[in-house]
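Why do we bother with a discrete structure alphabet at all? Because it lets us treat a fold like text: something you can write down, compare, and reason about line by line. To make this less abstract, here is a complete entry for Putative PurR-regulated permease PerM. Read it the way you would read a sentence in a foreign language you are learning: slowly, and without expecting to understand everything at once.
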Amino acid sequence: MTPTQIAALIAAGAFVLLVVLLAIPLVKLGRTLDEATRAIRKAQENTDPLFTGANSTINHVNTQLERVDGITANAKSVSGNVSALSSLFTATLGGPLVKAAAFSYGVSKTLRSRRKRKEESAGKHSRRGKGGRK
């Protein structure tokens, strides 16, 4: 064997060794990609029930929100009715009640004033009588 043939044989052996060393990571990378593909398929299969459940939950929430909208509309209507009733009460009975209260205040003030004058005049008469007899 000539030195060129020996060098070619060594180079061929190094090349085989390089191919073997590179083949191991490539095989492992291929297995990793296969596992990733399987995981993606399983995830895709498992998401269908998840999305179905989420869809039914959203439909249920929408139903509840429609009920809340109805309740809110009814509450708005009731508050408008209460406001109208309050205005009607104020317009119908408020004025006469204020007038009646003012009248009763005036009557009670007049009666107190008369009592006070009676008491003062009775007190003056009793003082005059005591003072005049001395």
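What the structure line is telling us, in plain words: The helical segments are 3-132. DSSP finds one helix and no strands in the chain.
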